[in-house]
Amino acid sequence: MRVLMLGWELPPHISGGLGTACQGLVEGLDHAGVEVVFVVPRAHGDEQAGRARVIGGDGVQLSNISGQRAAAQSPSPAPVLAGVGSAPLDKSVGAQGPESRPRVDDEPSVESPSNVHTILVESPLRPYQDAESYSDYVQGLEADGKKVVRDETQFRGHQLNEQLRAGQSESYSGAAITDPAAWEALALNAAKTAEERFLRGEDNPAEARFTGGYGADLFGEVARYAQVVAEIALREKVDLVHAHDWMTYPAGVAAARALGVPLLIHVHATEFDRSGENPDPRVFALERMGIHLADRVVCVSHFTGRTVRYRHGADPDKIRVLHNAVTQREQRDQWHTTRTVKGPVVLYLGRVTMQKGPDYFLQAAAKVVKLRPDVNFVLSGSGDMLPPMMMRSARLGLARNMFFTGFLRGKEVERMYSMADLYVMPSVSEPFGITPLEAMALDVPVIVSKQSGVSEIVANALKVDYWDVDELANKMLAVISYAPLRQQLIDQGRDEVGRMRWEVRGGLLLTYYEELVA
Amino acid sequence: MTAVTFYFQIHQPYRLRQYSFFDVGRRHDYFDDLENERIIKRVADKCYRPMTLLLEELVHRYEGRFRCSFSVSGTALDQLAHWAPDVIDTFRRLSETDCVEFLCETTHHSLASLVDEKEFRDQIRSHKARIEALTGRTPTTFRNTELVYSNHIARLAEECGFNAIMAEGADHLIGWRSPHHLYRPEGTESILAMLRSYKFSDDIAFRFSNRMWEEWPLDAHKFTRWINDLPESDEVVGLFMDFETFGEHQWEDTGIFEFMRHLPGAILEEERLSFALPSEIAANVDPIARLDAVLPVSWADAERDLTAWLGNPMQRAAHEALYELAPLVRATGDPAILETWRKLTTSDHFYYMCVKFFSDGDVHKYFSPYSSPYDAYITLMNVMGDLRQRIGAPAGLTSPQ
Fold first, then answer.
1. Residue A185's pLDDT is what?
2. Same domain? A315 vs A338
3. Chain B residue closest to A485 (CA)?
4. Closest chain A C-alpha to B57 CA, distance in angstroms
């Protein structure tokens, strides 16, 4: 079994999330004996020497960092995409301007297992971007000297324009595409174009239709990424395509159609989890397109399975559930720092957005403090709801008990966990929610909302409906007050998390693959 | 001759209502009356009523040759008296036939035998009086909560005047020996231990409806043949099980009632087989050997030990905290407080806290009103917090170091 996976790398500073899940899955698949061609976007300049090929934004292979070893292990033909496979990375970088921005990532870079063959595609796509944050990011890159294409007609490429002109969809301007059918046409066209070019043997980079610049808007970049990936896919011999979350869905469709293999999409979160009842119609259109065209829709929880079924109209027969696992750490207690805070510490750690339920945390805190004024509450993270939450905590009379740390990164996160007596995840809508498992792995008892995917698989956690503030306060008080309860949650929780292994998930994922690849 | 001795257990706890930390000091009604009523009525409809009537029919049809025994906890008797009083009437009629014996247990189905000898004796005395009031007879056979049994418990039962005590015929208790004899508990002089034949009991109680079981479907004649094939020297086959087996655990459509309807006839067709009450067995059969149980044995879970109730630190801490209150509860001299506290001693509250999720835990989950053992602990501790305040005990809430 050989799979083309359109995934994500560990993003800097952010614990949990897509990058972590992709890394775990790839390891789990490796354990199950599946070969993975792992395609990830990476902004120019973020390259770190790993065993990976780098594909430039113009479709040109910049270098083969993996060298002979990876090429020898890979059953795929030697990289032919560019015909300039030996072009030194520096040369290309030089042409683009100074790109050696320091990486401040605390996380170790992806250590690829032996059966994994990574292809980096130059693209500024990152998980959890929205249209705004993409623009900000690309503007930053532009300031660093990177070319960004303002003219929409360029990043789409002429072939795509023809297709659009043929009336298969309305004019493509990123902001206008809210029709899943338009995205479908776009993805299929990308596949067709790539195929035709491949058959004609047009591998000359001089004829690359890509401009080498990034899309000025997120949706344009998503479209461009689909075309690049379709080109790459045609050089790989794989049994199926596996795409993670909406930004890669057009690429997944394009690659699967170009190759004539099944498509499996993996839903880690939906627009409804991010934006509640006010979804971005462009993102929703992309999700709908991917979910409808995929042969399998793997969801990180039954909770998410219900979302794609009832919100996106997914065929229930196509839905499979694969819960996330936990990357097992050897060293757990290196952050058992001496406590400097007096009184119990109850922690919220995550993005401070409506969907994460920070307000319920505050309301429960206000109730707890009435009985136990010695309890400290810590709200860690940033987000659009942070300023209102700070105001609200003052109004609720929590000034003395509520602390705001802002965004924590890397080791600060673990240090924060080690100071906590209780971790609370009161999410309104949480497709999975890995952070409670991280807390449990670090010997912190947790309360999770029942509206989270993780509550489906974790037994040794307390569970509440996010809106049931009284019950949340009751459980906070119980954990703080009853030492045997706390100890039991810690001991059993540690064991339970230790059993949630990616190897097991990899085995299950393989069975989902096998349903598609007879 | 080999005697078949049926003993059916009837027990229902007083389940707690949702009781929050914020209720402490504010409300003193701890029990979920609606839920308790709903459950006892449901079980009465599905099991207690039809099955007691069937047994009555069988007793009359076989003119006294079919016999069986019951142990009914005080908390079950109270709830039946309240919500299904006709079942109590049937008990009384059954007892009047002389073919049905009622055993003694601790009124509140507690684990007092393990931690509080005074409470243990008090609950026995209280239950004995209830059974006497119900049947007009003094019970002579004792069955401890969940068949928790040890040398020490047997000795206490002997001191309380019982002739026999029930125990699980667990492998780790009897080893190579047969459960089909009477034994004399180590350290006692007159009391006899009657053992549950777990293989035959579980054929009915657990495996009866299991289609994966190679013996499925089980009928009365096949079951009788198995017992008839036992060695001639086997004296008694103890079929001890929850009464809820009939109609509640094994639904009516599994054929469990039909099985029981035909079993007495099948057994009585065999010359060497008969039915006998525990008191008759105790009077007529001699013990074959000493039985040594230093550590307590029970009939629960695969382990047949105490881990279902006191296996994890949470369960032990809660149980300890409850019995710490015993002297203060008694000192109030308030019968209502004592009764409330005793309702908390019911073993089920601790059973719900079991975290043996992955095998026996399934059974625990099935019987639990809580979605998690942690919720069970939190609720009981909150309730205890209120009770503690009412009787003037020190707060005793522990905080993180």
1. 81
2. no
3. B314
4. 47
Kindly list the residues of chain B whose beta carbon comes within 8 Å of any beta carbon in chain A. 20-22, 312-314, 316-318, 355, 357, 371-372, 374-375, 377-378, 381-382, 397-400
Chunked into runs of 10 residues, chain B (401 residues) has average pLDDT values of: 97 96 94 97 97 97 96 98 97 96 98 97 98 96 97 97 96 92 96 97 95 94 97 96 95 95 97 97 96 94 89 92 95 96 97 72 70 92 94 62 32
Q: A342 and A236 in one domain?
A: no
Model pLDDT, residue B204: 96
User: For residue A421, which residues of chain B lie inside 8 Å, CB to CB?
Assistant: 400
Q: DSSP secondary structure string, B244-302?
A: GGBTTTB-GGGTHHHHHHHHHHHHHHSTTEEE--HHHHHHH--EEEEE--SS-B-SSTT
CB A410 within 8 A of CB A332: no
Q: Which of B16, B21, B364, B378 to mutate: most A Cβ within 10 Å?
A: B21
Tokens of B143: 């069955």
Beta strands in A32-98 (DSSP E): 35-42, 52-55, 61-64
Q: Which of A478, A480, A487 comes nearest B399 by C-beta?
A: A480
Q: Name the domain count of chain A.
A: 2
Residue A428 falls inside a structural domain: yes
Scan for tokens 């004899």, then name that residue.
B181
Residue A462 predicted with pLDDT over 60: yes
A482 touches chain B (CB under 8 A): yes
Which one of B105, B119, B146, B248 is the catalytic residue? B146
pLDDT, average across residues A34-59: 65
Contacts of A487 in chain B (CB under 8 A): 313-314
> Where in the sequence is the domain holding A28, given as residue range(s)?
2-325
Same-domain status, A82 and A197 = yes
- Give me B121's structure tokens: 């004796």
Please state, for a pLDDT cut of 90, what percent of chain A lies above it. 47
Q: Which letter, b or e, does each residue of B117-130 get, where b requires 16 or more Cβ atoms within 10 Å of its Cβ? A: eebbbbbbeebbeb
Flag whether pLDDT at A409 surpasses 50. Answer: yes
Q: How confident is the model at residue A149 (pLDDT cuts 50, 70, 90)?
A: low
Q: Is B214 a catalytic residue?
A: no
Would you call A470 an interface residue with chain B, using a CB distance cutoff of 8 Å? yes
Helix (H) or strand (E) holding A198: helix A180-200
Out of B357, B381, B397, name the one closest to residue A459 (CB): B357
ipTM metric: 0.81
Is A18 a member of any domain? Answer: yes
C-alpha–C-alpha distance, residues A249 and A293, integer Å? 9
